[in-house]
Amino acid sequence: MSHLIKTGALLLLVVFLGACHSNDQSSTSAENTTENEKNSPPLDDVDVSLSQDGETISSKSVLYCLPSNNCSEETAKRELRNVELNKMTENASVSPVKEGEEITIHIDGPQPEKISFITETQRNDGSYISDEVVDGRSFVIGGKGKYTILLTVQWENENGEFEGRVSQAAKLDVE
Fold this sequence. Notes:
The protein has four helices and ten strands. The protein has 175 residues and is of the alpha+beta class.
C-alpha cells in the first residue's frame, strides 16, 4: 500500500512539474523534446469500442485502470488474472460478426502503445483459448462459431513504463 502511495505521489509530482514546464524551445534535453513532441492529451477519460462495417459491437468494460482512478500495473494484472470471461459476459448481448472481415478498434483518447486480445471459442468438441497482439487498429476472426473476446489496450510512457490499461469483453457469433 505504501508503494502505491509513493507511486501516486510521484505521478502527481510529475504531472504538476509537467504543467509548470514552459515551452522554451532552447532546451536541449532529449527528455523535454520527447515530451513536447508527444503532445498527447492526458490519459484521464478513455473510451474503447469495437465495430464491424460501421455496426457497433456490444461490449462490457472489464477493467478501467487509469491514473485518474489511482490504478497501478500490479492492480491491473491482479484484476485481469481474476477475470472469468464467461461469467463477465454472462448477461451480455451477442453481436453477430462476419467471418474473415475486419473488426475495428475505436479509441477515443490518447493512442495506446499495445493492443491485444484473448479469444475463447466454444465448439462441439470443447473450448479453445488463444491470444494475439493487434498490429494496427483492427483484427479478423477467421473461423465460424461462438466467441468470447477480451480486448486489452495499454498505454506506456516514453520509457516503456505502465500508464494505464482498459479491457473490454464481448460475445460474438461469427457467421
